[in-house]
Design brief:
Elements: H1 3-11, E1 22-24, E2 27-29, E3 36-40, H2 48-61, E4 65-69, H3 73-88, E5 95-99, H4 103-109, H5 111-116, E6 119-122, H6 131-147, E7 151-156, H7 162-174, H8 181-203, E8 210-215, H9 219-232, E9 236-239, H10 247-263, E10 269-270, H11 284-295, E11 304-307, H12 318-340, E12 348-352, H13 358-364, E13 367-370, E14 380-384, E15 387-392, H14 397-413, H15 419-425
Parallel strand pairs: 3-4, 3-10, 4-5, 5-6, 6-7, 7-8, 8-9, 9-10, 11-12, 12-13
Antiparallel strand pairs: 1-2, 13-14, 14-15
Helix pairs in contact: 2-3, 4-6, 7-8, 8-9, 9-10
């Protein structure tokens, strides 16, 4: 194997696992479709105003599916009103109902809720207990069949079917305990998902209406469980590390686990389950999910802003402030830009801090600027599509570069720009 071949092997993702595609309110999950980003509200669903506002914010941030809690009659009553309000706002994001314990009852007693939702999420570990479990699970599946809704069968290690886990533990002990308790727990999670999916199909829910998930909170457990689940099933898979935590811990843990699985071709839709800080922005989890997929090269959501980390040559904070402002402006403007500037998500911007890597990095971007480092001449060359087009000087370097960026976006991606013009500027 040559060095070039090794490089290609290490950089290229493995072929995508072939799963059965599922239509969730017009969004395709699985098959050849791109990996779908989803999120979940943390509002009281019965509070229509706050739930509509958060669903709208998550959708504007880029969430392609949004899950809401349906835990009591008041929440179920609110669902069709939430759907109606969103439709009036021209927000067509599919809503997923998250059901636990009494989902069968809520769906039966609130048919408008059952109709308004695009998908139901049920947990086989708490859908019912003992003799009621199969009856109540079956009731939800029959409702899904009646309204032609897909179902996510979402196993969670924190609410795992204890009867199944106990049986597998007893069998393992009788066989001389060849597996550790952790390995048995992983197997119980996989079996719970597969057994439940088989039951749903036997009741009459087609395979192309079933998505599976197996949520755990430890990185190695998630990798092991989904790797095994992918081997033993062709169902579409929802990836997510549950109870991932707050801030950088949650981001790192989720990215590490899901990055490995996605690289192996496993996963059809993802959610980054971040614990927000008090009063924190719920849309942060959407941004992280997008950044994970974009960084790995699976999808493009927003223009990329490359910026150097800074060193002793960059004691000025100008390049940091400019990079931050441009990144924030891009995020804020993307909901409008998606409609106004088709293809803008592929834009690459470079904001560099000194002469060492600045000019080279800027040349590789669509548009880039190399700001002066410590002791350098107070001049900032600007490069567009690999060519130096200007040198900015003076106190308004940042403002002038921002205007050049805006002009470039309008010229390259504006709806008035013909395909021939775009080809010339490409």
């Amino acid at each position: 194997m040559t060095a070039e071949t090794v490089s290609e092997y290490l950089s290229a993702p493995l072929p995508r696992r072939r799963s059965v595609p599922v239509d969730v309110g017009g969004v395709i999950v699985g098959g050849d479709a791109p990996v779908v980003v989803q999120s979940m509200t943390n509002t009281d669903t019965a509070d229509v105003d706050s739930t509509v506002a958060q669903v709208a914010a998550l959708h504007r941030a880029g969430s392609e599916l949004v899950r809401i809690t349906v835990d009591r009659a008041e929440s179920a009553d609110a669902v069709p009103r939430i759907r109606e309000r969103l439709d009036r706002l021209n927000i067509n994001v599919p809503l997923i109902g998250d059901f636990h314990y009494i989902g069968h009852k809520l769906l039966a007693e609130h048919p408008a809720c059952a109709e308004a939702l695009a998908k139901y999420r049920i947990n086989p570990g708490n859908v019912g207990f003992r003799e009621k479990r199969d009856l109540q699970f079956g009731a939800i599946i029959e409702t899904a069949i009646r309204y032609d809704k897909p179902v996510r069968i979402g196993v969670n290690w924190g609410s795992l079917d204890q009867e199944l886990l106990t049986r597998l533990m007893d069998e393992n002990q009788a066989n001389g305990s060849p597996l550790t308790a952790q390995q048995v727990m992983r197997e119980a999670i996989v079996q719970s998902a597969l057994i439940s999916a088989q039951m749903a199909e036997e009741i009459g829910l087609p395979r192309n209406r079933i998505i599976l998930s197996a949520k755990v909170s430890q990185v190695q457990d998630l990798i092991a469980v989904y790797t095994e689940l992918a081997k033993r099933s062709d169902h579409a898979l929802h990836l997510g590390l549950t109870e991932a935590g707050m801030g950088s811990k949650g981001i790192v843990a989720s990215s590490a686990a899901m990055g490995i699985l996605l690289q192996q071709g496993i996963g059809d839709t993802i959610r980054i389950s971040l614990t927000p800080e008090p009063g924190g922005d719920r849309t942060r989890e959407v941004q992280v999910a997008q950044e994970l997929l974009q960084t790995m090269g699976f999808r493009q959501f927003v223009p990329v802003v490359a910026a150097c980390p800074g060193c002793g040559r960059t004691t000025s904070t100008v390049f940091q402030e400019l990079a931050q402002k441009i990144q924030e402006d891009i995020r804020r403007n993307m909901p409008v830009w998606r409609e106004k500037y088709p293809g803008v998500e592929s834009l690459q911007v470079a904001v560099m801090g000194c002469i060492v890597n600045g000019p080279g990095e800027s040349k590789h971007a669509n548009i880039g600027i190399s700001l002066p480092g410590t002791g350098e001449m107070p001049a900032a060359p600007v490069f567009i599509d690999g060519k130096k087009v200007a040198t900015l000087r003076g106190p308004r370097i940042a403002e002038e570069f921002e205007q050049m960026l805006a002009d470039y976006i309008e010229r390259k991606y504006g709806l008035h720009t013909s395909e021939q013009d775009r080809a010339v500027t490409a």
